[in-house]
Amino acid sequence: MRVGFYQSDVTPGDRQGNLDRMATALSGASFDLVVLTELFATGYGFADRTAVVAQAEAVPDGPTTGALIDIARAKHAFIVGSLVEADGERCYNTAVIAGPHGFVGRHRKIHLPDIERRYFDPGEPDTPMFDLDGVRVGLVICFESWFPEYCRRLALAGADILCHPANFGGTMSPDVIRTRAIENLVFTITANRVGQEMVGGALEEFRGGSRIVDPEGGILHEAGRTEALGIVDIDPTRARRKASPVCRDFLAEIRRASSPQL
Amino acid sequence: MRVGFYQSDVTPGDRQGNLDRMATALSGASFDLVVLTELFATGYGFADRTAVVAQAEAVPDGPTTGALIDIARAKHAFIVGSLVEADGERCYNTAVIAGPHGFVGRHRKIHLPDIERRYFDPGEPDTPMFDLDGVRVGLVICFESWFPEYCRRLALAGADILCHPANFGGTMSPDVIRTRAIENLVFTITANRVGQEMVGGALEEFRGGSRIVDPEGGILHEAGRTEALGIVDIDPTRARRKASPVCRDFLAEIRRASSPQL
Question: pLDDT exceeding 70 applies to what percent of chain A?
Answer without folding.
Answer: 99
